[in-house]
Amino acid sequence: MKNSKQFIFHGKVFHQRVFPKKHKFVYKYESLYVKNIYSFSKFSFLKQSNLFFKFDYSTSQVKDNIVPWIKKIIKDFSLDVDFLELNILKTPNTFFKKAFNPVCFWFINYKDQTIAVIAEVTNTFKEQHSYFLDNGGKPITDTQWFKGDKKLYVSPFADRIGKYEFNFNQNPLKVKINEFDPKNNLEIITSLKGEYIVATGFLRFMMYIRILSNSFIVAPRIHIQAFYLWMKKLKFYSHNGSGHVK
Length: 246
Description:
Blueprint: E1 5-17, E2 23-35, E3 38-39, E4 44-45, E5 53-54, H1 60-76, E6 84-90, E7 93-94, E8 103-110, E9 113-122, E10 128-134, E11 146-149, E12 163-170, E13 173-180, E14 186-197, H2 201-231
């Protein structure tokens, strides 16, 4: 059995509103990219060797949605589990703070090629929804766009309904997400790109500090940008007690 392998992910997030008013920001993003987090022969998550960082795989979103979907595509596409690998890009929890991830990505690789991606979205009300994207068991290419209906309230300045388009490239890693409003106007363009770093010694320690720092400032950044949008007098959408689209 292969062991999990951790990489430092060093990248940038670009976010731009193009309708009805323009607004954009760019910020650095440090996280962990962990390869081979799951044993497909035992259907269980592998223990992580890092004592400082950890992921919580016991959430209802993981147990009730993500794992069953992975099992389903294995059956639907007749995949040999010996050639499967589950990787994750996510800001980890520490021993004193649970990380807030507006979105994290699970990559399902088959024979070293990505065949499916799960975009796990969490809003500031701690509600979650996962978008399951696959290419029928075949490798995903960087020219493909995967479309899906928006299912979760993510911002007081965006309608809870609409559509998404997702695009993925693994070498180097780049994720693009286009968000459309209910009238199919392209409203928001988001991209995440960066590189995996194998860090050791003092460099690894410094990268861990940056990951921890990134974890602390995600929520404040969201509120600061929301304040700017409020100043620009964008339409406000209330949460109304539930962010899930029925």
